[in-house]
Design brief:
flat
């Protein structure tokens, strides 16, 4: 009966027509002025029409009606209204009032917990979890209780109760482990989080080193495998960390494990026997690099190891970083990710060379290698997508070299700018909308911006600066017309338009991105 009365309202809401829904509410309320569900749903509809003050007054009035929450329709309408109004306490009061009519309704108890969790109301979340664990025989509610204790302690770490809450959570989990009720990766993560908050790293290692079901959970989850290696390093058990990293890398290709492997190796190497240790490590990396499916990660790990060894004072024990850097570029320059991969190590190598007053020599070496490769890369850029990307990656390295050198001459930044623009905007690959061409357009635009700030950065030259930046915007707009779907071109344009106070065009480009959140 009640659903038939409310059906026209629901139909209007499903059709995204709040005005019609409001009319249907008023129509029903003229016949039944005290209809609790109609009043509750009307409160929600009012929030959708912007009449928030009326919505709040009506919502509170319905909430104060003792029998109103006996109806599931009234509960739903009122919780939606309070949620739209940003009133989480009142939302929980709706469920609490409903529980007065059906105190053993498991679904309602769960709704209280979830509403509290959604709004970071950790005390109320804990109380709801206690009730669920007490009233219903379901192991998951014990875990809800554990999580609520953990969240309370994290939210107020200086509170005296925090340590008590963590101890209680830890005891509950230990009992679950003893009873065989720790069965999922998520539950194991909660246990590790509880120990981590208490800085019990040795105990975390013990938990992760046990055999049986827990060991199987860890072995099948790459993140937990990585976390175990990280813990072994933090507890300075470097030998086991190296062994764990090798075992992990034999099983799967994971860059995080490569980084931890290198960190453990650096920490465990005896300077007196560095050569033998590093040879073994390099042999492992070479073996993994021989596998074509994982060559990039293993080769990059060789670069990372050589760079870290150089930084740590071991010289070229793992190879010369500059040779490995360019070996990596030569092998993977046709991949778009190549520059992102190698950039950090070029910078790290340059920085480490400062310890030996060799930064200029490092820059000269990289520059010489760049000039050796650049003509051929430009010549062959139009032959394929890969060749085009190879040139773009070398141009990105050239930009980085000039930045590391501290180049201040605007004309140097603008050298060959026409070549870059022609390739990015008018070449045959550009007409085919190759991604490398959009990258080249962005790079050319960045050079124009860099030169503009160097030439006209003074406050007195603001007009000239703005004129130069509008030239960069013309380049970006041309790129956007050529490739409407390119996200980065549009983001660059938005930033520049905002800098130049051109808000309408910035908003138009932003709207074209169709960003939901």
């Amino acid at each position: 009966m009640e659903y038939r009365q409310l059906r026209p309202i629901y139909d209007a809401l499903e059709g995204s027509d709040p005005q019609r829904a409001l009319k249907e509410c008023d129509k029903l309320l003229r016949k039944h002025p005290n209809h609790p569900s109609a009043r509750a749903i009307k409160a929600y509809v009012l929030t959708q029409t912007g009449r928030t003050e009326e919505a709040l007054a009506l919502s509170l009035s319905v909430l104060e009606t003792p029998t109103a929450m006996a109806s599931a329709h009234a509960q739903q309408g009122l919780t939606l209204a309070f949620r739209a109004l940003g009133r989480p306490h009142e939302e929980i009061m709706v469920y609490t009032a409903a529980l007065a009519h059906t105190p053993n309704d498991e679904t309602l108890h769960c709704k209280v917990f979830k509403a509290a969790a959604r709004n970071r109301m950790f005390k109320e979340q804990h109380q709801a979890a206690v009730q669920l664990n007490k009233l219903f025989d379901n192991p998951k509610y014990m875990w809800w209780l554990v999580v609520s204790l953990l969240l309370q302690a994290r939210d107020s770490p200086k509170n005296a109760a925090a340590q008590v809450q963590l101890k209680l959570a830890e005891r509950l989990v230990e009992k679950a482990v003893a009873d065989g009720n720790l069965k999922s990766v998520e539950e194991l993560r909660v246990y590790l989080d509880i120990l981590d908050v208490q800085d019990k790293r040795e105990q975390m290692v013990e938990v992760m080193d046990v055999n049986g079901q827990l060991a199987a959970l860890i072995a099948n989850d790459p993140d937990l495998v990585t976390q175990r290696i990280e813990l072994l390093i933090k507890t300075q058990v470097y030998g086991k960390a190296v062994e764990a990293a090798i075992a992990a890398l034999k099983a799967r290709d994971n860059w995080a494990d490569y980084k931890l492997y290198i960190e453990a190796v650096i920490a465990s190497v005896d300077p007196a026997a560095a050569g033998a240790s590093v040879s073994t490590i390099c042999a492992h990396l070479e073996a993994w690099a021989a596998d074509r499916d994982r060559a990039r990660s293993a080769k990059l790990a060789q670069v990372a190891l050589a760079t870290r060894m150089f930084e740590s004072g071991f010289g070229d024990a793992a190879g010369l970083p500059e040779l490995l850097i360019w070996g990596f570029i030569d092998q993977f320059q046709e991949k778009a990710i190549c520059y992102t991969d190698i950039m950090q190590f070029i910078i790290a190598h340059h920085k480490a060379a400062g310890k030996y007053d060799a930064q200029a020599a490092v820059i000269d070496y990289h520059w010489a290698q760049l000039e050796k490769r650049m003509p051929a890369a430009r010549e062959s850029a139009g032959q394929s997508d890969g060749e085009a990307q190879a040139w773009v990656n070398l141009e990105k390295v050239r930009y980085l070299m000039q930045a590391l050198r501290g180049e201040t001459d605007p004309s140097v930044w603008l050298a060959d700018i026409e070549v870059l623009l022609n390739f990015g905007l008018t070449s045959k690959p550009a007409r085919k909308k190759q991604p490398a061409c959009s990258d080249m357009t962005l790079l050319a635009c960045q050079r124009i911006i860099q030169a503009a700030f160097l030439a006209h950065g003074a406050t007195s030259a603001r007009a000239q600066l703005h004129s130069a930046l509008f030239k960069a915007l013309c380049v970006l707009e041309s790129g956007i017309r050529l490739n409407e779907g390119n996200f980065m071109l549009k983001l660059y344009a938005i930033r520049l338009y905002l800098y130049l106070s051109c808000y309408e065009r910035a908003r138009a480009i932003y709207d074209s991105l169709s960003i939901k959140h």
